[in-house]
Amino acid sequence: MNKNRILFGASYSAIEPLGLLHLGGLARDLGWERSYHLVKDHNFEDFFEIVNDYKPFVVGFNVYTGNHLQLKEAFEHLKKDYPGIMIIVGGPHPTYFPRESKIFADYVVMSEGFYALKGILEGRFKSAIWPPRKSERFPHPDRKTFYDLYPEHANSKIKSIITMTGCPYTCTYCYNSSKPEDIDAPELLSGVTGRLFPNNIRPVEDVIKEGLEIKENWPTEIIYCQDDVHGMDTKHWLPEFVKEWKSKVNLPYHAQMRWEMTKGANGTQRLEMLREAGCFGLTLAIESADKVIRKEILSRGMDQSTMFTGMKKLIDFGFKVRTEQITGLPYGATSEITPMNLRADLDLVKLNVDLKKITGGPTMAWASTFAPYRGTKLGSYCEKMGHYSGDNSDVPDTFFEESILRFPRKWVGLGLEHFKHNNELWLSESELSKYRKQNAELRRIFNFVCLVPRGDELAENYLLTASEFNFNWLSIFTDTHFQNLAASGDYEAIKTLDLSENLEKLGAKKDVSLYLACLPKASLAVSKVQGLIDEKSFSTAIRHHLYDNVLYKDDNMINEIDSSRASDGRKDNFNISS
Ligand code: SF4
């Protein structure tokens, strides 16, 4: 076993494990050898083999609620076979459940881990739970070691970067808004005030150094900026970043922010600066279409008008916009009557359809199903009101499975807490199963129905009456929907039907041409799906089309390139003729 060798691990994702790469940078700066392993589908066989071959002295793993049970088992196995290896765990789950995590690890690192990992690797810290102390400057990430091991990440045309952690907002479902009293052992954090995850903004020079390294060493077309709220500080950080990024790195990027950040003159100035820097796309969360649900359940008391005005600005500035929403929320216990269950989910489609009709955006609408993570305020709310009583061992590993909540039949109000044991109030087993399936299917077709005029009506008809949920039935319902709209003189529907006929001339099959006609850059989509027969390959091709050709494609950049090519061409012509 090599005394200065560390193996970092995380569950597999197509996105680089940014947190680990920064921690790896810290280990590199302390002279440690590093390796990385991403575990696919909770299968730890390869991981154990790597431990056997690499013989690390330390294993550090990122744990979240969803992989915590599998990791517990894997670490018990590891400890039995390699008792000398030191196990460090960090990430959201150990931060909220340090005592529980300590059972299967030697060190538990809570919240931001730079300070604690440094102490551990320098041999100054004993085996213990290490609460957050002080924020440290992000070490330069260890991309090279990671990309050498993971060429698919190295060759991805999209690279992720993070310029800050922490968030000033207080969404109830988000770890970022948690405070020390929300964890399973608050006494560990006595004296710690404020948020559990601190606000740590990287110096612009560090971000530029990283951007340049990416640009010079690995094929990259765009950057995905993982900040939760990018560009908060419009006085100092953002102006400096814009100037440096534009002049030195000049890679287009997609980022994330809140609708409130688009408001007023300051919002306009922020968007101007972002465009100047090369930001061409933004993701903003709507989460719920109902103001009472947003305010009381999610702590996002934002007006609908902020979204409409914000979206209009974003589209006028030329941003590609993705909206995000959460379906299957714990409905029914608000102070005022709100839409419930499927109705509330469908209202999200309607809101996106209305936004698109009035402002031209979003470019893409993405939906998840709510999971009640313990430790978050909304997780506790679900237990209090009776929507959930599990221990999170059933929390799905991805956003793409069925809900694990139960739902009231109709709105009850604040008193639900006192009546939660009355089974009459809740959907029966069969009703619950039906809603969970409808919800999962709505999530699957969400972006598509948001692109369709009156798409909420199409979604409702399909989800309530289709005898099966599959592409075939969706096509049938879509066709009827468009024929009805066209018969009533709906101009957009008539245009889309015409386009679908034209797409057939380009080679689109009749049963998918209308679906394709609803998508942006439809003729390009036709070429992507040609020859694909089964539904799975078709959906994968469509997903790639929507991300590669639409959301993550900086059309302005292409225009710039095209026009510079055109001007080169003119020069050539001039040279020839002269
Ligand atoms: S704005 Fe985003 S990062 Fe901030 S608390 Fe809300 S969900 Fe979390």
CATH class of the largest domain: Alpha Beta
Beta content: 5-15%
Rg computed from alpha carbons, rounded to a whole number of angstroms = 25 Å
Number of helices: 24
**Biggest sheet, open or closed, and with what strands and sense?**
6 strands, parallel
**Hetero ligands:** iron/sulfur cluster
Query: How many domains make up the 3D coordinates?
Result: 3
CA-CA gap between termini: 72 Å
What's the total count of β strands? 14
Organism: marine sediment metagenome
GO molecular function, one term: iron-sulfur cluster binding
InterPro entries: Aldolase_TIM, BchE-like, Cobalamin-bd, Cobalamin-bd_sf, Elp3/MiaA/NifB-like_rSAM, rSAM, rSAM_sf
Keywords: Iron, Iron-sulfur, Metal-binding, S-adenosyl-L-methionine
